[in-house]
Each structure stands twice: as C-alpha cells, then as structure tokens.
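Sharing a chain and its predicted structure for anyone who wants a worked example. Both blocks are below, sequence first, tokens second.
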Amino acid sequence: MTTLQSATDCLASKKLIIFDWDGTLMDSIGLIVEAMHSAGEAHSFSTTDKHIKDIIGLSLDVGIDILYPNATVKQRLAIQKSYSDYYIANSYRTPFFPDIEIMLQKLQQQGKQLAVATGKKRRGLERVLTASNSHDYFVSTRCADESASKPDPKMLIEVLLAVDKQVAEAVYVGDSIYDIQMANQIGMTSIAVDYGTASSAELAAQRPTYQVATPQALANLLTV
C-alpha cells in the first residue's frame, strides 16, 4: 500500500498540478444537480440525482444529450439555456471546499505551477474565477467548449503545451470517472477525490494513481 510519505515524495517532483473545477476545487455539485432538475422540468423532462451526477465532468451539451436522449435539438438547446440561467443566478452559493484555497496558496509558495482543465464553458469558468478572486492561482486554464469533452485528453495536452511541460512532470486531480480516464489515456499521474461526484468505489475502478477522501487529505498529499 502506498504510504502518505511515499506518495508525497513522488508528487514532490511534479512541477505542474492540473485541477478539475466542479466537485474538486469548488463545492458546486449540489447546485449543478438542482439547476439540471430545474432546467429539465421546465421543458417537461425529468431525471434522477444519480444520473445528473454521472454526467458531471462532461461538457454541458454532451451531458444533456445523455440525460435527455428523446429531446429534440431545439429542446436540448432550451434546456442548456435554462440550466445556465439558473446556475448563474445562484452561483454565489458555490464556495471553495474547506482547505482548498490555503492549499492553492501553499502550492504557489512552493513554486508549483497550477492549471485547470474543466468541463465548464469558458464563460462559466471566467465567471467563477472572478467571483472567487482566483485568476492569479492558475497559469493556464482549458474548457470543454474550446477543446474536447472529457475523457478525451486534449485539454490536458493543451495545458502541457501552454506551459511547456511533459506528462511526467504533471498530475491531474479530479472527482469524476472521466477525469481519471482522461489522465490515464496519456499516462499522467492522477489523484481521485471522493468528495465530489463519483463514489469511492467508482473512482477506484478507474485505477487512479492516488485517491483521497477529503479536501484536507488532498491538501496534505500535495503540500506536505
């Protein structure tokens, strides 16, 4: 079994830490589920909490296609707009998880470069970066609407190119099975976090390099 000390020794050599956003850095899963229920029901469609959680991490259009396969193109576009309107109106309710911002500060102080690769749209990421005053933590950010939806690794490759780093120098941190699948496709070290969308067992089945249960455990793993 990997000990905390051996894991931190390995991760100490990583120069670039790439994070997913929703469910990894920001406590937004509850609002995403609520917004998707509201959007679907506004157009006479329904689904379950579990089904919504299962598509978090994918781009919004791909997720809606999966959730509502019987919807017409017009209905899917309307659901996207209703979802975005609801989420934006309530986005003040999505703080960083406890210990996360202090972790980002410590990682910067240790000379690490930080980046984001997220299923959010660019406009949505820019909004939450501004609201959380966190632009300055990240040297590069990539979004699904300007790249490819997870688990395609294109976003990770683009971040590596943007900061001139190799796969072996980086680690990706995420809370969904798509995050771990994306990292695995290019052989990138990964950290699965159990406090977001997927269950511990679902994440473990994807064989992440490391797995942690809480934001504090993630901070300890990356900064000790």
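Comments welcome. The two ends are 19 Å apart (CA to CA).
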